[in-house]
């Protein structure tokens, strides 16, 4: 079947490495066939990263699920989970001690605890660095940072400077959800605003703290709202260049207040990855977070613009397993990760937190 003229023109712009508009992004979502989008996204991936597909040896620590917020999509917080926990610093340090010596990144994120302030979380970073001085600490989503910094009476800049002095090396992309104010009020109205999320990441970048960015998709958002979200990220990246990667996060409906919403199809998953890779022309990397997407779909996503599969995880996160994700015990060995990549004719590359090759 002949490709409509508008899609041919968008394809021409992409191949010529010209930036597409928001309107053209919506057209890709609404009119682009899956094969067409995959071809274009794969072209962008190859231009940016060749045939490399990266991974990292990492683990997560989730200090608590006791949360001041009550997001309707969340299955993790104590509002919806069957259990609740708040790990002590000693318990957290023990989790650090038992990791293999070749693990090089720790991802710390979780709920927004009402009683823990920035000094608690700063001391945690200091004590982890004392145990493992070379461990990269990617810690605290913008939503957590907003609360702990506000509780301290510091400005965003002052709070991030303090945490950087404690060992904070980068920040994860969580808490972005969807930037559209109407949908955001509906699904997570108590959470930090999109404006605040963007301001925290922009300030972090100005201080030399890189970060990732995310979007929660597949709930009640429209294609136009997805593109608006991507556009705001693209504009911030134009200003700072501080984002390492974008991670689309699939909504799962298990055990939360939005369980009546069915998950989107595999076709929609791959369209999300493909259009993200095409639209975010200034983002170096597109990541498939396999505990959220599932191993098989993460592998397929390597043909839709993805060049990074996150890491080994070491069965250290429950955020998506509680929501009904495929992997209830998310852990992947290095050999399994390499096999996933090589089966797709990509080149496995072990990386550090800044996407430097450490093979």
Q: What's the CATH C level?
A: Alpha Beta
Rg over alpha carbons = 19 Å
So what's the overall shape? globular
From the 3D coordinates, which CATH architecture would you assign?
A: Alpha-Beta Barrel
CATH topology: TIM Barrel
The main pleated sheet reads as: 3 strands, parallel
What does this protein look like?
The chain has 359 residues and is an alpha/beta fold. It has a single domain, classed as Aldolase class I (TIM Barrel, Alpha-Beta Barrel). It contains 14 helices and 9 strands. It has a 3-stranded parallel β-sheet with strand order 8-1-9, with helices on one face. Strands 2-3-4 form a 3-stranded parallel β-sheet, with helices on one face.
What are its keywords?
9 strands; 3-stranded parallel β-sheet; alpha/beta; 359 residues; single chain; 43% helix; TIM Barrel; globular
Helix and strand topology:
Layout: H1 5-15, H2 22-31, H3 34-49, E1 52-56, E2 58-61, H4 89-97, E3 105-108, H5 118-131, E4 136-139, H6 142-152, H7 156-166, H8 181-188, H9 194-206, E5 211-217, H10 223-240, E6 243-250, H11 266-279, E7 285-286, H12 290-293, H13 295-301, E8 308-311, H14 334-342, E9 347-350
Parallel strand pairs: 1-8, 1-9, 2-3, 3-4, 5-6, 6-7
Question: What's a quick, concise take on this entry?
Answer:
Helices cover 43% and strands 12% of the residues.
